[in-house]
Amino acid sequence: ARNLFQLFCMADVYDTECVFKLYTRAAARRIFSNLHVQSIGADCEAIFRAGLLGIPVKEVAVAWAPTSPKDVRSASALQLVRDLIVMRAAYALRVWTL
């Protein structure tokens, strides 16, 4: 997802699906107040919106061990690609606004 995200959203984020995300209350309100993607790409839209809103995103390494291997199915990968293309086009064409 990283390469696709960087290609479509021009953000330097390593792991867009990481479950550890922290936001200030004010930032969360601005980012999530008008989120459009309701599937696997929702995290990507949140990070993309943060960039558009000028809210800095910083990744911090967290040491943890998953309880099961990450299982990314082809359908999920295709959904993510679809989400990224739709998201980028919708913001670029101003169909979706901040």
Tell me what the structure shows:
This protein has 98 residues and is an all-alpha fold. It contains four helices and no strands. Helix 1 runs parallel beside helix 4 (74-92) and helix 2 (25-32) packs across helix 3 (42-52). The chain starts with a helix and ends in a 6-residue tail after the last helix.
List keywords for this structure.
98 residues, mainly alpha, 4 helices, 47% helix, 0% strand
Structural class: mainly alpha
Strand-residue fraction? under 5%
State Rg.
Answer: 14 Å
Q: Which shape, going by the Cα principal axes?
A: globular
Q: Which series of helices and strands comes N to C?
A: HHHH
- Number of strand elements: 0
Helical residue percent? 40-55%
Pick out the low-confidence regions: none
By DSSP (H or I, 4+ residues per run), the number of helices equals 4
On the 0 to 100 scale, the average pLDDT is 83
* Major β-sheet profile: none
Distance between the termini: 23 Å
Briefly characterize the structure.
The protein has 98 residues and is mainly alpha-helical.
SSE blueprint and pairings:
Elements: H1 2-9, H2 25-32, H3 42-52, H4 74-92
Helix pairs in contact: 1-4, 2-3
